[in-house]
Amino acid sequence: MEDIEGASILIVLITVFILAIFLGFELITKVPPTLHTPLMSGANAISGITIVGALIFSNTDFNDGDPGFAAWLAFFALILATINVVGGFAVTNRMLNMIAGKRGRK
Amino acid sequence: MDSAIWDIGYLIASILFILGLKKLGHPRTAPTGNLYGAMGMLLAVVVTIAQMDFGLTNNFILIGAGLAIGGVIGYVMAVRVQMTGMPEMVALFNGFGGAASALVAASEVFRRIKLSELSEEDPLFIPLPEDLDLYVAWIAIGLSALVGWMTLTGSLLAMMKLKGGVEIFGTWYRTPTWGPEWLNYVKGLFLIGIVGLIYMSIKEPGNQDYVIGIIALSCILGIMFVLPIGGADMPVVVSLLNSLSGIAAAFTGFIIGNNVLIIAGSMVGAAGLILTNIMCKAMNRQLIDVLFKSFGGSDKEQVTRTKVGSDPEEVAMICDGISKCVIIPGYGMAVSQCQHQVREFADILEANGCEVKYGIHPVAGRMPGHMNVLLAEASVPYEKLIEMDDINSEMAECDVALVVGANDTVNPAARSGEGPLAGMPIINADKARVVVMVKRSLSVGYAGVDNDLFYEDKTMMLFGDGKKMMTELVSSMKEI
Questions:
Q1: Which ipTM did the prediction report?
Q2: pLDDT(B217) > 90
Q3: CB contact under 8 A, B97 and A97
Q4: What pLDDT sits at residue A104?
Q5: Is A11's Cβ below 8 Å from some Cβ in B?
Q6: Residue B26 domain flag
Q7: Which of B403, B388, B474 is nearest to B435 (CA)?
Q8: pLDDT band at residue B42 using 50, 70 and 90 as cut-offs
Q9: pLDDT the model gives residue A102
Q10: Shortest Cα–Cα distance, B302 to chain A (Å)
Q11: What's the average model confidence in pLDDT over B347-365?
Q12: How far is B34 from B373, CA to CA, in rounded Å?
């Protein structure tokens, strides 16, 4: 029974994976060149979602009571992912502000 | 609380990502799109922390510290960076994202190995997974490591290439572009090697040597991947690496069995691929050519012809009383940061009743949209930035085409159908009555092709740094 359950969870994950790929293909159609860089940078910030994985592992690994190598790897991943997320959205925001012609910060 | 509630939080975050990415593709909605993305991310982080069991340890402080350190570093970097340094910054952040995914995967490996080595009586003991779970876990770990480490080293190299070099202990080293054809086969061998190692790691799950092997090979593969690619193609590579870091995040999602990672990651992966393709089309290049054929740069032609430079006064006299001027900026404008002087020049012309437009080549600069960002910083209205196809139909009626630090994007050789530039769409600056080029020298551009436009009679060369020449031009204009 347990094996069947594991398999069906896996199928769900793979289904989500494939559908999301198709969604991504459809999502971006015509993009004016002005937006290429901000779009790339915004998408890059979204790919920082791996922060969730880093958070979960930072917690569970340190919870073991004996934080080993794995725990510190996860902690380092957490820092890098946060830089990616915060920096990515902030940079995108800065670029878009300038393009939109609002008062650009210097 | 029931875990289903948390899953709804993740679902909302996924929806925000989808809407955000969609809105980022349209000029008017792009800022909202970015905000949606950021909100989705905040929600995902809050949901993750909220359902954590902190147990007896003071993990809370540790995780808070991690978020704070990363947040401050990221924010400071994002705010401090100059507009010219934007492409490098995107490449660097991208590398960090890839590395984070790879580190999460590595962490899982060492955790599994550590826990499986405990004695069976230990309450923490978990046996290494078997059958299906085993395959999925190790394949996901392997792929996440492959893509993640590759993204890291590739992005770092791309960043250095965008800068043009790297400073080590005060000495400046130019980043090389090197890639004979056999390197492609080496890359193929490395890829096969990595797949083999992933297979071995499934066979012998407790052995960490295979994992270290995967990491090492992936790092080298990332470098070999970016090394042969020349400067003008760099944006395409950064975009592709961005796509890869999304895929790495999706594989990490498989490791922890979390939908939001899979959705956001694979969506970014696919969208990044489409964006990469759009960029290639803008340059009239095939993605395959960009990736596997070394481009220009290496055997630059020697410049033998000469051209007498003009001085700003002459140019100012020509520009007096014209009715239409098109300004064509390039990387030179970004380097010398002369966008404000360019706008000042345009303002003077406009005050004299001249129509001024900006012709933006899709790959001008080191990043698509690079010029738009710079000119927007100098408060040039968005409507005046005209895309290549539209400006080309107007070039014939243009009195003066002012080319500021651009070269390949206005090189008529691209129309001839020979050489590395062949077939690349260009802005037809040579159709204008007078062409003024602000450039440091007659040297070739990134493609390594001599530019005939320099030597035409109607072309006036202003040799010098963009900012200096534009400042002089503006003051000469004022004197008239």
A1: 0.89
A2: yes
A3: no
A4: 38
A5: no
A6: no
A7: B403
A8: very high
A9: 44
A10: 33
A11: 86
A12: 16
Q: Are residues B286 and B332 in the same domain?
A: no
Q: Tell me the C-alpha to C-alpha distance, in Å, between residue B161 and each of B92, B233, B435.
A: 12, 11, 31
More confident call, A15 vs B369: A15
Residue B278 and residue B320 in one domain = no
CA dist., res. B334 & res. B235, Å (int): 15
Looking at the structure, do residues B333 and B279 belong to the same domain, yes or no?
no
Domain identity same for B123 and B186: yes
Residues B288 and B373 both lie in one domain: no
What was the pLDDT predicted at A30? 77
Nearest to A36 among B62, B262, B279 (CB): B279
Residues of B assigned a catalytic role: 408
Mean pLDDT for the stretch of residues B14-34: 90
Gap between the Cα atoms of B96 and B65, Å rounded: 18
Q: Which two tokens stand for residue B177?
A: 């572009």
Residue B187 tokens read as 């890359």
Measure the CA–CA gap between B273 and B187, rounded to whole angstroms.
Answer: 20
Domain count, chain B: 2
Q: Is residue B99 part of a domain?
A: yes
Q: Do B463 and B309 touch, CB atoms closer than 8 A?
A: yes
On the question of pLDDT at A72 being above 80, the answer is: yes
pLDDT surpasses 90 at B59? no
Q: Is residue B252 part of a domain?
A: yes
Same domain for B320 and B248 = no
Of B33, B263, B360, the CB nearest to A16: B263
In Å, how far are B13, B319, B461 from B36, measured between CA atoms? 9, 47, 47
Please indicate whether residue B113 or residue A86 has the higher confidence score (pLDDT). A86
| Residue B234: inside a domain | yes
Mutation target among B111, B244, B375, B387 for the A interface, most CBs of A within 10 A: B111
**Domain parsing of chain A, residue ranges:** 1-30, 32-106
Let me know whether B462 and B328 are in one domain.
yes
Which range is least confidently modeled, A13-17, B89-93, B353-357, B415-419?
A: B415-419
> CA end-to-end span of chain B, whole Å?
77
Tokens representing B262 are 């899979």
Residue B438: CB partners within 8 Å, gap ≥ 6?
A: B332, B402, B403, B404, B405, B462, B464, B466, B469, B470, B473
Residues 6+ apart with CB under 8 A from B284: B423, B424, B425
List the single best residue of B266, B374, B386 to mutate versus A (max A Cβ within 10 A).
B266
DSSP state of B475: H
Whole domain around residue B435: which residue ranges?
312-479
Q: Are B344 and B385 in contact (CB under 8 A)?
A: no
Do B242 and A43 make contact, defined as CB atoms within 8 angstroms? yes
CA distance to A58, B63, B279, B373, per residue, from B364 (Å): 43, 42, 12, 12
Q: What is the CATH number of the domain that holds B360?
A: 3.40.50.1220
Write down the residue that tokens 């499986």 correspond to. B116
pTM above 0.80, yes or no: no
Q: Is residue A8 less than 8 Å (CB to CB) from chain B?
A: no
Between positions 61 and 90 of A, the ones with CB within 8 A of B are: 61-65, 68-71, 73-90
pLDDT at B123: 58
Is B236 in the same domain as B321? no
Average pLDDT score over chain B = 82
How does DSSP assign B176-245, residue by residue? P----THHHHHHHHHHHHHHHHHHHHHHSTT-HHHHHHHHHHHHHHHHHHHTT--GGGHHHHHHHHHHHH
